[in-house]
Amino acid sequence: MKLVYPWLIRATGWVLKNPKSFILVPILCIYILAYGVVHDLTIRPLNKALALRSDSGPSLDFASTETIRSALSYGNWSLTKISLSSENVVKFDSLKGVHALEEALVSQNTQNQTSFVVSPLATWPNKSSSARQFEESALRALNHKHKPELINLFFDGLSKKNHLITAATTVNLYVVHNASLPPLEVSSPLKVSFFETSLAPNAATEFLKYFSFLIEDSLPIKLFNRTVVLVQMAICIAFVFRVYFCICNQHKIRSNIGLVCGWLVEVTLASAAAVRILSSYGGFQEWMSMFGPVSSYGAGTYVLAVMLFSSRTLFRTINDLAGDNSMEGHETLHKRLIRFYLGINNSARNSSDSIYKFTRFVRKWCFVDKFSSSIAPIPNSFVVLCLNLSGLSLIFGFIFALLHIFFTGIAWHVLVDKYRLILEAIVLALAIDHFLQQTFLVGIILIDLNRVELTDLLSKNPNLNDPEWNESNDTMGEIDPISSFILGLTGPLARPKPSSLRHIVGTHILKLSPVSSSRFWLGDVLSFFFWNFFCQVFITLFVLPFNLLTDDAKVVLIGHQAKCRHSYDWLFYLEVGATILFIVAVSELTFTLTYSQRQRKEIDPTATLEASSSLEYTELAKQEQTKYFECITLNKGHNIDVIKIATNSKSSFLVSADLDRNVLVWSPLSEAEKKKPMSISTTIDSLEEQTHPRFWPVNHIEISDEGNYIVLVNYRHSVIKCFERESLSFIWEINLVKETGLSTKELKPMLAFFRKKTIAGFLARRLLMKRRSGSDGRRSSVSSTASSSTITGNYPPPPLPIHEDNATENKVKDFEQSLNRDEFVMVFEKGHMITVSCTDRKVRHYTMFEDVYGKDLVSENLRVTTAKQLTTSRVSDRILCDLVNGDIIIASAVNNVWKFSRLKTSKTSFNSRSNQVLPAPASAMGRTFSSMDTDFSSIFKQNFSNSRPTEFPTPKRRFAPINHCTIETIDFVGMVVRVRDLKAELLDTQTGIIIKTFFIGHFKPGSFRVIHSEPTHCKFCGCASVETLSLVYEDFYDPTLIVHTFSLENRKSRNNICLRVERDPREIRCLGFDATTEKQYWYHDIEKWEVTDMNVVMGIRRADAKNSDESEVREEIVDRKSEELSSLRKRKSKVPSAPEKPKLNDLWQGFVVTVSNGQLLEYKIPFGEDEDESEFACVRPNVIAKYGYKAVAIAFGRKIKILYLGGRKLIESDLYYKGSTSSLKPILQPSDAAVNRNELLFINKRRRMLERRKKKEPEY
């Protein structure tokens, strides 16, 4: 048993308590180390702009080389270098002497003797200026106009003070001439220190070409240079935006822009620090000249390479630290931080990526895990860094090999030295960047995981004196504003057409994610380096004077570093201190806004672990262990793919149909019937034909709650047929066209279900009391209990407790069964509705449109868009129909007769922050009981009538709705969620009040679901309440599962979402949906999924996203085989062996999503000893259906697997009233404590009180 290092627990606890120090100390150390480079990149350009703008003196600069290059086209020209030295050549006397020497050399030009002088003082002004102006102009040119290559070429012996040149001891003049030069005469204080003519061929031509490149005098070279620099800048900017969009689409970080800015600061400082270290210890006087004669391309390659490889470790750091659920509370943050430094994966999503698999392989076989658990912690990002450096070394080795093949001599040495320095700088920068990621960036992510946005605090609490202002909750991560603007999410009028370029770009941005390892190395890295390699080689070969590099006279020293002496005064140190103080002040302000006082208070008692706690390494690594679903396999029935699965969550039976038109009934929970399904394939007997056609297609299958009746629906012939399990035969068949007199187009089913026919409560009680009381006619406690717990209205009786005589109870159950007969209900698109009695085949036809609107007012275009059954305890069965005109029709079963009414909806302002205070009554109320208004009905009616208009006009839509109209029910409280375009409305069916409006995305038709946590009673009012409510759907364009979870995170009240608040103006103590916080979770590459009653989503997805390229690989294999078969000359060639069939768990991965916190857990699919796993892997999952209250049934080809977690009890008719757990937490985290009774207290209270009273009564 290995324990986690106590010092690691203490260190990570200190990090959580002091995140500001953990951020500032490392970044300030690297900032001070890289300050010289940072100064030249930030402050120096600012000084340059100010200095050149205020320049009013003479302009000293280089002259154009066009005249010289035109003269070099004929004749024999030589190149001579003249070096003039003095104590300070930038003084006016020295400058004047240099200019006099230039004039003397040019004044002796004749027809046969011509000389051109290339000098930094070529633009000497004709008008007179003061000596001070000349000196300032020369220093200004040296510090702000000339490139480092030009300064090294023309000056030497530099003196710098605070990174600015103040003096130079040598100035070089280059003379291009076609005859011998006369003797030189220089005035004091100058003296000639070097005078030599080059012996290299074409020395003057090559020098002018190189000099023209430096001063950008040649237009083609200037355009190429500018183009390459702009392309590098564009690539850099595009890559930054790509990283930003990838982080946004991961939905793990709240402040995506803040994290990207922090990452850019980290990369910049790491790159600058690496250059500073190499320039200091490599003998370079100036860091800007470190990358060779053509430094711009080398610097661009260096920075982009560091960004490219740093982003790889950045994504891994986010995944490992934030995990699958970045919105979790900070109670688990300490363990996540320990896992991160130990290299234990916090994100189950990484397991499908090849970089994760290869990282695990390296950690296992290179003994990294043993080293991390026994000696020192090694995070996964360090392994990724080592892999990046290994790949980088291979790429540069390949580049060096190419240089060795195609280049020799001095060109090979120049290019190799350049790339060697770039490689050293990249390696050192990545090492420093990794250090900053483990400290600086980790601190930023830790703060972000517990961040409170000031804007949300102000919007949620307008009153700054409110004590809850500091107690507010974390908000959802920020929305990507760029893709939102492109897709026009601000309103329907701003949305582009799906075929437009704007829409394509917007959807592409939403799909961006970190690329796979193969694409990263083969696509991004290789393309970038080889493009840069081409630019480097081209410009180096075209510009560099290789003949002068091998010149023995050493006239032109390419790449020479001018000697430089640095000095600093108090202004420099004041500048450094001021910048550090500014950084600390900005970070303190940012820290104050993003890290609330509540988090500082709660981080000590809840987030950190004690160093003495025996935290085991295996406990932290438990998440990486392989986990399997519990499974029931149905494999001995179908011979071809299953295309339909029908279930009833209250019944254990399952019906499946395949492509061979076979319909089978399974009993998965019965070991005997599971192996031998029953076929109910049949024919259509009601058609007037000689031959009875096969009952196909089976468009819909419905199962009754007890599983005794199964109805098959055929849309083509409008026929329904009922199968009874007791008689094992079809008991009736109905042709709807003949029965109703309607056409086939009018009989498009929208809803079909079974319900229990009810009986009058008085008659039922009387008969049951008479049957249970016995022959003595005495009403005992048993009969009293029975009569109180049976039917008391128009609804089925709840199940009775098991007690007393079994024979009597069996008789009672048989009698109750005779009273409660099943009937089948169907709702059609044109407003028609039928009910069929399952026992006597009695059909009843309803026309809801005529009952609601009147026969003469029904429009031909009026139709039902969606319909749902709503079953609520102690309330009549209801059907909700959403019409195309926006109305909602409610059908209620009253004494087994359906009544129809239109539900008028309205938005409520009860108990919301926008609600106005009710005015005080005109007269003061007395203190006596009789004078107090305890009804409050007048206030309710007045407020309700004022907030709700009497009639809602139906506006004419200018655009087609994006989402199909959908209704999802919340049965236990009688509410529904109605989808209208990009909005979902939580609607109370009793009053028509729209409690909450949710904003959703574009989802696939039929994929919208609503799930909630286990309902309980509110702590204040006793009404129904839930901990979380979630909207789940699949994105329309991608296989992406999107979850919107709404919950209360007010730590002060610790209350659930009360469903009474928005419906009752008197309730002001509870918190409703107006106080909820929305959180979004996105899960990509989802193949099949379904929600369960345990507030989770179960499904299956691809184990590796890169398997989408499988079809391309197969096509290549087929083409290759066809070529072999078509050639007789290859008839003896060996056909390559067929690849081994993959296993199912290699292609498909099961998963469970707990929507309350967004956590995704991966599970493998188990297989028995007699099962062939490759048979499951050769096909995709066909269909998925919910089974029971905690399982899903998935069809793989011809076989069906029922996946679940926990015990084998999968069916529960009354989930919230029978004591069965409706939460996944006890299954995932078993506890030794006693299991609490799981029930809805406000419904079951009366029944439990009667049970207690019965136990206390004495027996006679």
TrEMBL record:
<feature type="transmembrane region" description="Helical">
    <location>
        <begin position="290"/>
        <end position="309"/>
    </location>
</feature>
<feature type="transmembrane region" description="Helical">
    <location>
        <begin position="382"/>
        <end position="415"/>
    </location>
</feature>
<feature type="transmembrane region" description="Helical">
    <location>
        <begin position="21"/>
        <end position="38"/>
    </location>
</feature>
<keyword id="KW-1133">Transmembrane helix</keyword>
<protein>
    <recommendedName>
        <fullName>Sterol regulatory element-binding protein cleavage-activating protein</fullName>
    </recommendedName>
</protein>
<feature type="transmembrane region" description="Helical">
    <location>
        <begin position="421"/>
        <end position="447"/>
    </location>
</feature>
<feature type="transmembrane region" description="Helical">
    <location>
        <begin position="257"/>
        <end position="278"/>
    </location>
</feature>
<keyword id="KW-0472">Membrane</keyword>
<keyword id="KW-0812">Transmembrane</keyword>
<feature type="transmembrane region" description="Helical">
    <location>
        <begin position="570"/>
        <end position="591"/>
    </location>
</feature>
<dbReference type="InterPro" id="IPR001680">
    <property type="entry name" value="WD40_rpt"/>
</dbReference>
<feature type="repeat" description="WD">
    <location>
        <begin position="635"/>
        <end position="667"/>
    </location>
</feature>
<keyword id="KW-0853">WD repeat</keyword>
<dbReference type="InterPro" id="IPR036322">
    <property type="entry name" value="WD40_repeat_dom_sf"/>
</dbReference>
<feature type="transmembrane region" description="Helical">
    <location>
        <begin position="528"/>
        <end position="550"/>
    </location>
</feature>
<feature type="region of interest" description="Disordered">
    <location>
        <begin position="773"/>
        <end position="805"/>
    </location>
</feature>
<feature type="compositionally biased region" description="Low complexity">
    <location>
        <begin position="780"/>
        <end position="793"/>
    </location>
</feature>
<feature type="transmembrane region" description="Helical">
    <location>
        <begin position="223"/>
        <end position="245"/>
    </location>
</feature>
